[in-house]
Amino acid sequence: MEAIRKQIEEWKSGLLSPNQNDVLLNIKPDKNALAIEDWYNEEKLFTVPDHAFLKKCDKQHRNAIKESGTPIFGLAKDQLCFTIDHQQYQMPFLLASATLHFNRFNSLFEIEQTEDFYVNPLLLNLLNIEDIASDSNTALQTLEALGLKVQFENGVWAANFHPHRFVIQKELDALSDLLHFNNALRSLFGEQNESADISLSDSYLFPADASQQLAIETVKKENTVVQGPPGTGKSQVIANLIGKVLGKEKNALIVAEKSVALQVIYDLLKQKDLHHFCVLYHHELKAKQFVTSLKNTWKTLESIPKQNVSVNVKHELLLSGLDLKFKRLQQKDLIGGISFNEFKTEFKALQSVKYVEQKPTIPKWKKELESLKQLEVNGFPIYGSWLYLKTEQFTIADIQKSLQKLREKCNQFDLEKYSPKQIEQRSKLSLLNSLFFHDDNALPISIFEANSKTQKKLLKHYHLLKTLLEKKEVLVAEEKLWKKQFSLTELQEYIEVLSNKSRFNFKSWRVKNKLSKYTHLDIGDTKNALENLVELTDIKRKIITQKEGLRKLDLPDELPVLEHIVYAIKRINSADQNAVQQLFEFTEKERLTLKSQNQDLNEVQQLIRYYFQFDDAPIGKQIGELNEELPLIIENNTRLKQISIATKNILSSVSTLAEAEHIIYNSHWKDFKGQFPDLGETTGKDIQVTLNSIIEAESLASDEFSNSITQRIKQGFEEYHQLLQTPASKLKPEQKELKKTLRKGKSILVKAFDKKRVFPSVRELLESEARLWIQLLHPVFLCSPYSVAKSLPLDFSFDLNIFDEASQIPLNHIVGAVQRSKRVVISGDQQQMAPQFYFQKKTQHQMEALHHASFYWKNVMLTHHYRSKHPRLIEFSNRYFYENKLRTFPTLNPEIPIEVITTKGVFTERKNEEEAEITAKIITTKIQNNTFDFGLVAFSQTQLQAILDKIPAKERDQLTQHDFIFVQSLENVQGDQCEHLIISLGYGKNENGDFHMRFGPLNKEQGHRRLNVLMSRAVSKTTFIRSVEAKDFAISDNEGVESLRKLMLFLEEEERTLKNTHFPEGIRNNGDMLEIKNVSNKFKDAKTALDFYRTMIDRDWKVEIGI
C-alpha cells in the first residue's frame, strides 16, 4: 500500500500550483475575467454581448471539452479582498460551472449556470481551513475571527476558472488519509489480484454477441479491461452489465469524462424504462435537479402496479438445443465415419436398398472401393469364391494349408454334399451323442428317455446311494478308533450292557474293562462310539442293497459313472429334442460311428469357422471353386487383404459395386436416423425458424427482465414502508435500528421534495440517513470523475464500477471511484487519443487509466464491428491498428464506401485552395439537397477555414444551424460519427514542387492514432480529397507520417478495388439474398451463427440457410 500512497503524493504535487495570475487568486477585469452582473440570471439562460474575452474563453472551453471532456468555463459570485504575508488577493468567493455558447445569428453569448455556487476551493486551501459558510455575512465573521481584514465586493464574473483540479486534489487528500485501500485499488497497482466472483443476473437487457458475452463473463470473475474498438458495442456491454447488476439488487457507478458517453448509456436504459433508477450527474447537476430526480422516481414507484414477473428462458433452451445440433453436424465421424455435410453430399436415398448391420465405415469403404475397382480392371472375379476366405486375417499359406486339410477331411468322411451349416449341425449332434457313452462304453439308451421308468429308478438309486456314501464317509473314521473289528451281535451285546444304569453291576464293569483294551477313548464315550459302528454297519448294508438294485437294471453301480449319466440326462433334456430324437432313432452302431467321427467333425467345423466364410451351398462345391480361383487369389493377395469382412459379406449379396455402395450408405443413414431422428430430418429452413424463434424469445425475455428489475426495486420500496408501519414490539434490534434510520431518511427527503429553493447538496444527502433511500431510488450513478470526487462520499460504495472511454481518463482521476467499488471494469480503446493533462507539471509523466489497467487486469477485446455499413470503411483501422481482428457486417446495397479525389492543388500559405474549392462544392451540394448527414474534417484549422470561406453565405448559415454536424480540424476529432465523412488533406507540394511532410498534430506524439480516429468515423461513405499520393512520401521514422503514407497506399488500393460487397467463403451474395450453403461448417457454434443472422436481418438482407 505504500507504493500507492507514494503515487498519490506524486499526483498531488504534480497538480499545477496556482500563481498570482490565476483567476482563482486574483480577478483582473477584462484580463482574466469579465464582469457580467448586469446580465446575470441564476434561474435561467441569459445572454451577454459579444466580447473578445468571451471569445477567447469560448475557444479554450470548447478545446478542453473536446480533449478531456472537462469543461473549464464558470461563474464567480462576489469577491474577497485581503492581504496575507504582504501579498494582496482579490479572490472570487463562490464558484459554479456554466455553459457557454456563441449565437452567430444575434452575435450574443448564451450562458447558463449548471450547478449551485460553492466556496472557492483555493480560498480554503490558502487559508488552510476545511470549510466555510457560503453565506457572505457568516463567511466574513469566520474570516475576521481568523484575524483577516477582508473587504467584500458584490458582483458576478465569467471566466475559465478550472475549478475541477482542486476537487480532484481534495479527493487525493482523502485517499491519503485512509488506513486501508480496497482490493480493487490494490490490484490496479499490481499489489493484489485476487477477487471473488460477483453475482450477476443471467438475463440480458440487449442482445450480446459472443465477444460481448465473453467480456461480461470475465467481469463476473475479476476486474476487467474491455478493449472496444469503434462501433463494437461498448455501450451495449455496459448497459447489459448494469442490467445484470440491477437484476441481483446491486448498484453501479458509471464514470466517463464526456457527458455524451454517459448520455448514450442513459438513453439505452431509457429504452427499457430503467432510466428512472439512474442519476445522470456529469459536471452539470444542481442540487435541485438531483432532488427532483429522486422525487420523480419516488412517485414512479408509487404509481407502478405490482406484478409477479418471471423471466422466460426459452431462448436459452432453444440456443442450447441448436448448439448441440451444430456440434453434432460438425462431428467429423457422425455418419459412418464422415461428417453430416460430407455424407449428405455423397448420399442418395433409395427406398428399396436393404439394410445390413455389419458394414465398413465410409472412409474404409472408399479405400476398399479403389482396390476393388483395380481388381476388376485386372480381371479378378470380385464376386467370386475369394469371398469365402478370411484373407484380411491370415496369410495365403495358412489358408492353403487349411484348405487342403479341409478337402481331405471332407473326402474322408463323405462331407462334400453337406453345407457348412449341416456340418455344424452334425458336429453338434456328434457332441450330443458322446453323452450316451462313458469311457467309450455305450450306456443303456433307455436311461436317457425322459421320464421313463428306468430313468426314474436310476435317479432314485443314484440319490439314495450318494446320500449313503456321504454318510459312510463321515462314519468310517469311527472304525479307526478300535483295534478290533466287531460283529453286529457283539456290538449290540456291548451296547446293551453299557446301557445298564445300575451302580454296582459286575457284568458292566467287566465289559468296560474288556473294551478299554481295544480303544484309547474315554470309557464314558464308548457307548456312543459303539452305536456309530452299528449305524455304519447298517449304511454299508444299504449301499449293497442300492448297488444290487442298479445291477438288476443292468446299470453301473460306480458313483462317478452314475454322476456322468445324471449330467448327461440333464444335458439331453435341455438340448434340441429333435436332435435327441434323431439319436434315439439311431442304431447303436450308428451312434458308435458318429462318436468315432466326433473329433474330426469338430476339426472340420473349426477349420470352416476359423479360416473361411462359406455360404450354405455344399462344401465340396465351394472347395472346388476355391481350388480353381486359388492362383488368382494368390496373385492379388495384397489387395484382397485390404478388404474387410463386412465388405466381403456385402459383396457376396450384390452384383455391382454401386449396389454395394448404396447398401453401405443407406445402412449408415438408417443407423444415424435411429440414433438422432430429429437431426436426420433437419433442414436449413428448420434452423432458420429456430434462429427467428430465439430472436423473438430473446426480445420477450429482455422486456420481462427489465420489468422484473422495476418490480424488485418496487418491492424494496414497499418493504421499507412496511417496516416503517411495523410496531417496534414485533421487530428485532437490528430491524428497529434500520427503521429509525429509514424514518429519519424519509423525513429528510420529503422535506427536500417540498423545498422551492436552497436544496441540500448531493453530498449532504448521501452523508445523511437518506442514503438508504437514495441507493434504492437511484442504484445507478452516471458521473464524471469530477462529480464523483465532488459529491460522492468516499464510503459510498458500489458493487460495480465501469469507466467508459477510459483512454480519455487520466489515471489519477479514477482512483477515488475505484476505492468506492467492489468490481471494476475499464472500457475503452487504446488506439484512440489519450487525454490532455491539464494542471500538471510538464516534467511529470502521466498515464491514462486504460493503458495502465491493461498491464494488471484481464483484457477482453470486442471484435464485432457494427458501425460501418461497408467493410472497407473500417478496413484501414482494422488492418493497421486492430490486427484484422474486427469482424464486419455489410449492409444491403451500400454506397461506394470510399471515394478518392486526387487534385493538383498547391499547398501555399498553409492551405490548399483547390482542395478547399472541391470540398466546399461537395458540401454546398449536400446542403442544397437538404442532406445533412455529413461531417467535415480538414487536417488543419487553416484548411478548415479555407473550406468554410468558400461555402456560400446562405449554405454556411444553414450549416451552423445543425449542431449535430461536426466540422472539425483533425486535432479536434474524437468520438464523432456521421453517415458521410468528407476529408480534406490540404497538405501537398508548394509552388516549387517541394513536399515538406509537416502535418501539424500528426507529427506529434500519438499522431498516428488521429488517423485511426479519423478513418473510423464514417457509417456509410468517406470522401477523401487529396493533392499528393503515396509515391510523394519518403519513408519516415515518425509514426504519424508513416501512418499517413500507409493511408495513401490504402486509398490508392481502394481505387483499384471492386465496389461489390464480398463475403467470406461459404456465404454467397445473390442480390438481396445471402445464401449460407453449410451453416454448421461456416460458424463454429450456434451463438456465432445467431450473431451473424440477427445482424444481417437487421441490415435488410434476406438469408437462406442450408446444411
TrEMBL record:
Q: Where is the DNA2/NAM7 helicase helicase domain?
A: 209-472
**In which domain of life is the source organism classified?**
Bacteria
What GO MF annotations does this protein's record show? helicase activity
- What UniProt keywords apply to this chain's record, in alphabetical order? Coiled coil
Q: Which residues form a coiled coil?
A: 389-416
What are the TM regions of this chain, as residue ranges? none
**Keyword Coiled coil attributed:** yes
Query: Domain DNA2/NAM7 helicase-like C-terminal spans what residues?
Result: 847-1023
A Pfam family annotated for this chain is AAA_12
The record ties this protein, via InterPro entries, to:
DNA2/NAM7-like, DNA2/NAM7-like_C, DNA2/NAM7_AAA_11, P-loop_NTPase
**Protein name, entry field:** Uncharacterized protein
Organism from which the protein derives: Brumimicrobium aurantiacum
